[in-house]
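Appendix B. Extra example for self-study. Work through it before the problem class; the solution is given directly after the inputs so you can check yourself.
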Amino acid sequence: MNAAPPLEKDVVPDPTPPENGLSFVEEIHNLLHASVGNPISSCIQCGTCAATCPVASGGFMEHTPRRIIALIRAGFKEQVLKANTFWYCASCYQCTVRCPRGIDIAELMYGLKRYTVWKTQYQKGLIGPVFSETFVKMILRTGRSYEPILATTYIFTFGLPEMIQEAQNGTALMLKGRLPLLPPRIKRLENFKRMIRRIIPLGDSE
Amino acid sequence: MKTYAYFPGCSLEKMAQSYHLSALETTRVLGVELKELEDWNCCGATAYFHVDELLAYTLSARNLAMAEKEKLNLVAPCSGCYKNMYFTREHLLRDPDLAEHINDALAEDNLRFSGSANVQHLLEVFVHEVGLKEIRAKVTNPLKGLRVAPYYGCQILRPRKDHEDIEQPRYFEELVGALGAEPVDYPLRLRCCGGALILTNRVAALSMVRNLLESAVKAGAAVVATACPLCQVNLECYQKQVNKEFGTEFYLPIMYFTQLIGLALGIPPKRLGIGSEFVAVMPAIAEARDADPVPTGK
Amino acid sequence: MSQPKRLLIIDDDPDFVAGIKSILVKAKYEVDVAYNPKDGFQALKDKAYDLLLLDVMMGRGAEGIMVARKLGKDPNLRNMPVLIITGIREQMAFLFPGQAVHPHFVSVDELVEKPVEPKLLLDRVQALLIKSAEARKTNSK
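Solution. Structure tokens for the complete assembly:
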């Protein structure tokens, strides 16, 4: 993978720092300190990301990626963290590969998801965070993904029509032999769990 | 015979079993051995990156380290797994501190990542390793007259790995052509299917699926060829819901590219997992054949 | 005590940092701040510190653990005492309802959970400084 070409200087000056001495855009730069892309302060607001994003161009995002970057730089922290934008990102990377300033916008979306998950500050009612948390928990338990568990644990966050549709689809898949009946498990699960604990040192020993 | 460490990924165990079956059948005929990676674990999907990227890298690195132990390169049929493992390797190679940290965790399973195993997508193995010439030579049952819309989707192409052309790729079209079928050009061939949004933001994903199906149908495609289980499930299993939501009448078969290869190599449909789909595949194949019969014998 | 002790904070939360920094400065410590692990390592390279206050969830994930483990392997830095101040149990509550595990990364370290009372913070900092000074004395004997 290529690191983005370095830029000569930031185009837009950062807004005045708030009381704690750190602006929101700096906070986001810290969150993305390991990113290979250029910092979001180098965005020129050209709108390529918004136009190329299949979700934003379908009108599903409250703010387009371009607008999210503008809001971050203007210090609108609360509006950014409560936005559905990054939870509606499908990780297709079209914005990232087309950004003329070499900003890894998809990585920014991942970063914002993490940030709001850690602080439980995401918009209430979104399925995305619940789904991600359920998924991560499941893999930590068995090492592999199992669709039926996944479906039953977060399906209640759906509205009724979606829930019925999803159940119908599940039944149809089951009839076609496309859903497993038992959750798969990896063999060296104990090693696997100890491995995870080296990365996140939390939890009771099981 | 060339051997790869094969990482099926969670979807291929059941949901995309036909991809698994057809991958094994076709590679065997073409002299490639897919040796399933022993005790592989989930690649982390996208969800892990929403919570902790280091954890996501650890999951992928375990698989990479196991392939290294086998002294084999890793091949993944799922675009998501492929992207995760490919870029985990890149990140760990670029950042020795990160690699050291992850290796500290891998030691709990007696594993160590060094980066010696590279990562390829199954489609790349067919196109670049086996080669179109070799595939063409083994075709006994050319899919003449079958109009196929090759669907690249996202993560085979993006993010960009090196300097390769990700805006105008042609290799999927060329593969379809090598099978005797007719590749169909349609504008949305590189556009996202919605991925996991089908579960988290249903209406957005359904509308993305609708746009794709519409684009392929308008271009006269009889089937769509995919190289990713998530794309296949979104485009096929949710067609009914798309029709309900938007009042459309799509009935477009969505096949794995390995199923098309298998048919062209003369492998019986059943062994390619054909028959477990919601939108029947064989009528479209038969229709093309009837309209443009292949002369049998000389 | 003639020279004020020099402390480094590596923590991504500007509000929390502002809070503990003012407490420590008031107690006559000299305090520098790095808001991400990368800047943190740079600071440790540029200057000698008597103690590090380290957050866990930063940047890509539990990077504080990565920092602590790296310090433990560095002959120049592994004797610096580290106070890990983390909100990880709350940040990852959905994942692991259990206790924070503290694997001890360097010779003198301790883990406390956010939020931290000012008195507790100052007590721990002082205790770690004394402990590491004693450890140094024993080593040099």
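Self-check: Chain A touches chain B through 62 residues (CB under 8 Å). If your reasoning did not lead you there, revisit section 3.
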